[in-house]
Design brief:
The protein is an alpha/beta fold. It is built from three helices and six strands, in the order E-E-H-H-E-E-E-H-E. The strands form two sheets. Strands 3-2-4-5 form a four-stranded mixed beta sheet, with helices on one face. A two-stranded parallel ribbon has the order 1-6. The protein starts with 7 loop residues before the first strand and ends in a 35-residue tail after the last strand. Residues 130-150 are annotated as: Disordered.
Length: 150
């Protein structure tokens, strides 16, 4: 696909993050799994051994664990800007689920799209281009090259 067909935007910070202290954009994690299904084996292992460590490392994120009779275990991530991402964790190991949670924690919740330029300003310069003859009065006339003295 060409670059014209993909959406793009200027580089920006989410909620001015980085101006003051850092605020993790992930608000809530919900782990939905089945107590009996074979596809939820990795999720059950992660809940037994890794969910407490994750919660201690990320005190600003609320972690919900909900055992429900479901066929597909999933992680539902909710961000401060209101976006919700669902990731299926069918037949994943505890280590893979931990890596997925780390990835979701480090994201901002915005869609991943092409960035137009690596820089952007909200108040661009209105001075215009400058050259040595910008403010020269027109009465002086055009400048001619000097003739070398013979």
């Amino acid at each position: 696909m060409t670059s014209r067909g993909t959406p793009s935007r200027f580089l920006r910070s989410v909620l001015q993050n980085g101006v003051g202290r850092y605020v993790c954009q992930l608000k809530r994690i919900s782990i939905v799994f089945s107590k009996k299904a074979q596809s939820s084996l990795g999720a059950r292992d992660f809940i037994e051994e890794g969910v407490v460590d994750y919660a201690n490392k990320n005190p600003g994120t609320v972690v919900y664990v909900s055992p429900q009779p479901c066929r597909v275990p999933k992680i539902v991530a909710e961000y401060l800007n209101g976006n919700v991402r669902e990731e299926t964790i069918t037949s994943k190991t505890s280590q893979q689920i931990s890596e997925l949670l780390t990835k979701l924690t480090n994201q901002s919740g915005l869609e991943i799209i092409r960035i137009r330029k690596p820089f952007h300003t909200d108040s661009p310069s209105i001075q215009g281009l400058w050259h040595p003859f910008t403010n020269r009065p027109p009465s002086i006339g055009p400048i001619r090259p000097q003739k070398p003295d013979s």
